[in-house]
Design a protein that fits this description.
This protein is of the alpha/beta class. About 25% of the residues lie in helices and about 20% in strands. The protein is built from ten helices and 13 strands. Helix 2 runs parallel beside helix 3 and helix 3 packs parallel to helix 4.
């Protein structure tokens, strides 16, 4: 089969498992989904495979077909396994449904329907051309793009609200000091999350009080993706580290929906809201938080600012509840991650 740049797929035997493994090599932070494609012959032998490396590059199907052509491999009558429904959209690249048709592929199996109204419908297009195309749901493929799928369906970026707090919910001491509530392992995890999002949003008050760099610095990664740095609010913050280069924007508004609309235009699909409490509370009150990352340290302060302010919730029946809750031990600290399913009080 064509060269796959040394990627070992021996552990993933089913073609769709192989396609998911390939898709995971693509960037998590861009405007496009992560997609993999594996094309097999009638005996199930892999003829070629490919994946999408980000906006402006070949889509997974086109990448696989290009590799086949370069290696002199004939895919006529073969079956293509794709993690996402082949697109019908002409953008910086052509429609994948057309590429598969022109290559003479005999059958297409895709794991997730494309919710993007601009690109959806590839399965029906293929079927209309006499090419069997079937949806075969695969949890791994859906999980890989769960945030992107939610964002596209909602028409706004997926929002993760993140904070680090003590056992009693404080994000700083009474004198304002907050470095460091959590330990090195928790901070390293937070940097890895930053490297997988399109933008980080903080309030102008946080910019002035903490002068954060808002950079992604995961250990051992010299060229990590740097998310767009966003200062939200009306106060001028020039001279702070946020403005060290042009990968930053000041959005002069207190409206979370307006912030998300602007970031959507900038092709941001996943946003990390790092607060402080005023901004985090605004997003929660607006029902615009999809997921929470709470890093909890075994520390008690008894006083100081809280991670979240007044949400207008008066009774337990109105409480925001988390689902799909996971906990991860990070040194002495614990990350509690949860999907927020109730859209506001």
């Amino acid at each position: 089969m064509p060269d796959l740049e040394g990627l070992d797929l021996a552990a993933a035997q089913h073609p769709m498992d192989r396609a998911v493994a390939l898709a995971a090599q693509g960037p998590a932070w861009g405007p496009n989904p992560r997609v993999g494609c594996v094309i097999v012959d009638a005996a199930g032998q892999v003829l070629t495979a490919g994946w999408h490396r980000g906006a402006g590059t070949l889509h997974a199907e086109a990448d696989a077909l290009a590799r086949a052509r370069a290696a002199g491999v004939d895919v006529t009558g073969a079956t293509a396994y794709v993690t996402l429904e082949p697109c019908t959209h002409t953008g910086r690249t052509g429609p994948c449904a057309d590429a598969l048709t022109e290559a003479g592929v005999g059958r297409v199996v895709y794991a997730v329907e494309d919710p993007n109204p601009v690109a959806a419908g590839g399965g029906e297009v293929l079927r209309s051309r006499g090419i069997p195309a079937e949806l075969a749901p695969h949890d791994g493929a859906a999980d890989l793009n769960s945030r992107w799928l939610t964002a596209v369906s909602a028409g706004r970026p997926y929002v993760i609200a993140k904070w680090a707090a003590t056992l009693d919910g404080r994000t700083a001491a009474a004198d304002g000091t907050s470095f460091w509530i959590t330990g090195e392992e928790a901070r390293e995890h937070a940097h890895r999350v930053r490297a997988e999002v399109g933008a980080i949003v903080v309030g102008t008050g946080t910019v002035l009080a903490d002068d954060p760099s808002l950079s992604a610095r995961p250990a051992g990664v010299a060229d990590a993706h740097q998310p767009l740095r966003v200062a939200m609010g009306m106060t001028e913050t020039r001279g702070r580290r946020v403005w060290r280069d042009d990968n930053a924007v000041h959005l002069a508004t207190h409206d979370p929906a307006q912030v998300l609309a602007e970031l959507w235009k900038r092709d941001v699909r996943v946003v990390l809201v790092e607060g402080g409490a005023t901004v985090t509370t605004a997003f929660l009150r607006a029902g615009l938080v999809d997921e929470v990352h709470a890093y909890v340290a075994p520390v008690i302060l008894g006083a100081g600012p809280s991670a979240v302010g007044d949400l207008g919730i008066a009774t337990m029946s109105e409480a925001l509840r988390g689902e799909d809750v996971t906990t991860v031990r990070l040194g002495a600290d614990t990350l509690v991650a949860a999907k927020i399913t109730k859209a506001g009080p």
